[in-house]
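Hey, quick one: can you model this chain's 3D structure?
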Amino acid sequence: MEILHSAIAILAAILLIIRFKVDPVISLLIACVYLGLATGQGAEGTVTQITTGFGEIMAEVGLLIGFGVLIGALLHSMGTFGDLVDILARRVGKRLPYAMAGTLSTIFPSIYVDVQVVLAAPMAKESAPAVDRRIGLPWLAGAMGIGIFAGYVFVVPGLAAVAVAGLMDVPLGKYLIFGLPIGLATALITTLLFKLLLRRGFWNESTDLDEDGVVEDGVVQDEVEAVPAAEGAARLPLLVRLLPILVPLVLIATAAILGVLEVSNPVLDFLGDANIALFIGLLIAFLMVRRAIGADGVGSVLTAGFHTTGEILLVTGVGGSLGAVIAESGMQDTLKSLFSADANAPVIVSILLAWFIAAVLHFAIGSVSVGAITAAGIIAPVVGSLGVDPVVIALAIASGAMFALHVNSNFFWMFATLLRLSTKGALKTLTLATSLGAVVSLPLVIVASLVT
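Sure thing. Here's the predicted structure for all 452 residues.
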């Protein structure tokens, strides 16, 4: 019954938001209350899970969201993203979505997904007209989504990749050898398929963009963009203006690589923490803009950034509440009892079973990493009896865990708000792109099973 009630809660939230135009925060809270009471958590237990889930998400990503959005606002005021887009348009042009998907899936998996999206979203909004004035934004959004999560689950040191490999007792080097080409191929193929789908009239600007955003020359404008540019800072070399992004990325990546190598350095561990690294980036951006336009000018930029931050934090936190209520509903135990290992099952059946378990868990729980880790925890004790190389089962779990990232994910709401998409628009981009990626990567995992 937990699966049925979870499905009802999720579908009800989607229906309330899309059909009846109920605010996402209210819709998600209604879903939380229904699911908690329907699965026997009681009034007190339901409230506890709602508040606990909200608090845990805020502890995990609250500062990341705030710092990331403010960095984006300050960088925009310096004209950084516009100049960067001009360069990319000249050198990459309409291939930018492929470049973005490939880069996010192979170079940046060491950076946590929430950090990636808050730093990449402003560039995607700015560069949309250069890619395609009609479908540039949704195509880039889909490329961002699949690029981030293909790297997250397939490429070490992506969090989900490292976790699944560890639980399945697969050496990280072996996982990387198979996961890197699968992750890259998944990102690029999905980006192409997504473009073909958009070309068929799938995107509707009037309903798929956030009604609070303004469409101007094919790109979504928001409140932050109304702030006058910091002309003095804009005259700085582009590489200097990119330091608020580059410095945090280098610090975080260095700490992540050292962690994989099991090398400990207290100073780098501190500076490489995502919260500290982004705060350093924020300080660099703040000093650049303040020097150019003074205290009042930088205050106006930050005020606009704070407005956007509050909106993102609230809906992200409530998304975390729904995930916590679902996790407490007993979903994991229910799924575990539904599946049992069969030592005589063909390899492809074992792969499909692992993929399906991870997909269902992710769809219900709302976290790619938790879905993947939970699936690995269910399958790991019996993987030895399947007659399949554990790396193949681990990759199948990674593939399934990407399926249908939707409204019960805090990332979904960050993604939608940062790109100024409506709920329907986010479902058409992030949800569809990750679902396509899960389907595209499955046959690649089956092919990998033939060479292990």
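One thing worth noting: Strands lie at 214-216, 219-221.
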